[in-house]
């Protein structure tokens, strides 16, 4: 990460687990704000930062019983906030799919098949292909 203290010999200085968890909390909250604003490029950058932090955190994490009270509280908070983000992303994806389905039906109404029965197309693809 850009704001990590660097050591000329080893790359990144050792950072405490609490510090890394705090930074992860900031990234998760920024990720939610970027998602709400539909800033996709920022979301992608934040996802990369989150992955870097997780790679740094995983070697430091032992059994839950070994966490300090502060680290345990941060871990619980991160779990909860990350679940909130996941729910938000899932809801947004569901809404997007439903919107595409609705628009697909509106663009291509039901038509008749060779046998005279009504044939309904689920998606026209026109919105995705850019033909409308």
What's the SSE blueprint?
Blueprint: E1 6-7, E2 11-12, H1 17-36, H2 40-57, H3 69-107, E3 111-112, E4 118-119, H4 126-129
Antiparallel strand pairs: 1-2, 3-4
Helix pairs in contact: 1-2, 1-3
How would you sum up this structure, described in words?
The chain has 132 residues and is mainly α. The chain has one domain. Helices cover 61% and strands 6% of the residues. It contains four helices and four strands; from the N terminus they run ββαααββα. The protein has helices at residues 17-36, 40-57, 69-107, 126-129; strands at 6-7, 11-12, 111-112, 118-119. The strands form two sheets. Strands 1-2 form a two-stranded antiparallel ribbon. It is elongated, with a radius of gyration of 23 Å. The two termini are 43 Å apart. The model is unreliable at 1-12 (pLDDT under 50).
- Number of helical runs? 4
- Helix and strand composition category: mainly alpha
Low-confidence stretches: 1-12
- What's the helix-strand series? EEHHHEEH
End-to-end CA span: 43 Å
Number of domains: 1
Cα Rg: 23 Å
Shape by Cα distribution: elongated
Strand order of the largest sheet: 1-2
β-strand amount:
5-15%
Estimate the helix proportion, in percent. 55-70%
The total beta strand count reads: 4
Largest sheet: 2 strands, antiparallel
In round numbers, the mean pLDDT is: 78
